[in-house]
Automatic annotation (TrEMBL):
InterPro entries assigned: Xyl_isomerase-like_sf (IPR036237), Xylose_isom_bac (IPR013452), Xylose_isomerase (IPR001998)
Active site per the UniProt annotation: 101, 104
Subunit field text: Homotetramer.
GO terms under cellular component: cytoplasm
The protein's name: Xylose isomerase
Binding site for Mg(2+) 2: 268, 271, 307, 309
Gene, per the UniProt record: xylA
A molecular function GO annotation: xylose isomerase activity
Amino acid sequence: MSTGFFDGLSKVTYEGADSDNPLAFRHYNPDEVVMGKRMEEHLRFAVAYWHSFAWEGGDPFGGLTFERPWHPQDSMQNAKLKADVAFEMFDLLNAPYFCWHDADIRPEGADFAENLSTLEEITDYIGEKMQSSSTKLLWGTANMFSHRRWMAGASTNPDPDVFAFAAATVKGCMDATHKLGGENYVLWGGREGYETLLNTDMGQELDHMGRFLSMVVDYKHKIGFKGQILVEPKPQEPSKHQYDFDAATCIGFLRKYGLENEVKLNLEQGHAILAGHSFEHELAVAAAEGMLGSIDMNRNDYQSGWDTDQFPNNVPEVALAYYHVLKAGGFTTGGTNFDAKLRRQSIDPEDLIAGHVGGMDVCARGLKAAAAMIEDGGLEDALKERYAGWEKPEAQAMLTSDLDSIQARVLSEGINPKPRSGRQERLENYVNRFV
């Protein structure tokens, strides 16, 4: 039985680039084969439960602008209605996956026992809906940043009772993710950081965070969860100093606590920008270390220093992102989660569909451009030419030599290198041929 929320809207289909239907795919054809794999299998799109259904349209200066039938989100009845609407949207989009935080799918209870009870109840309800749906769970996670109990962090909190509450919460969320067949479990340290060092023991907090993540990995193996554990880097927001600042910081943290073979990264375009990086940089850093797991696709407003979580619309940026994803072998358990939300003034149900349709089309164009660049090989040829000198035996020998020997060779051979062009403009022009 329909909720009526999306009344008047039809299932979104691929109509091709010449279509003028604003609610049709013009570039995303799930069955189109790209580099030997269906586009749907490459992109593995997921709808974010929190932005699409739990966010009420508020900002720091004003409250909700969305008036949804499941507001207020404080009862199981409304939680189930929200799930009904969510699966109607998944069906309209033919979305392969969705993602959630526990606080998105259940109401906030008076204590942990109530939270766990409602989480288990809604997990069963969602599980029943999944039986008649083609949409699967890409990943689950715990919201350990919104409630006031998390104001000083979760695993890094100076209060051991908060650490205990966080551990119990994550166990419940991992159990729910496992029960629903989730393909990953994500930990986002929304407040794992500090506001001032005047009241912070950084070393102790990092050790606690490392131990917490180790317990998560141990529990994964205990329950036989076959999915990937992921951590998500994010700088500055909301804490002044986040311990999970960027990909390189997270990789160093994972290596310090011996978790580099157990945990990979879930990287977000908007977070990369807040860290002062490009998305392709973060992807390349993770890929170089074999830790690229999944991505959150969105964009930031470049005139704002905030994480605005807008739907992607920049094909060149997206193409370079997927170029690095494809070079790394593509997604296995990971995918493309739209961690993107409507603008506060986009209040109609149709806007939810339009935002995802546009984002999926942009990603499809980016994927095809990335694949075309890889198949053409121009960027790889340019890299090979630039680093060709390192293929010579004398260059390779330097890497196992010492400073004395290298200096002697420079003197004996009269080595006096001349700078060579990096040809950046030519390579940028090359990329623009494909996008």
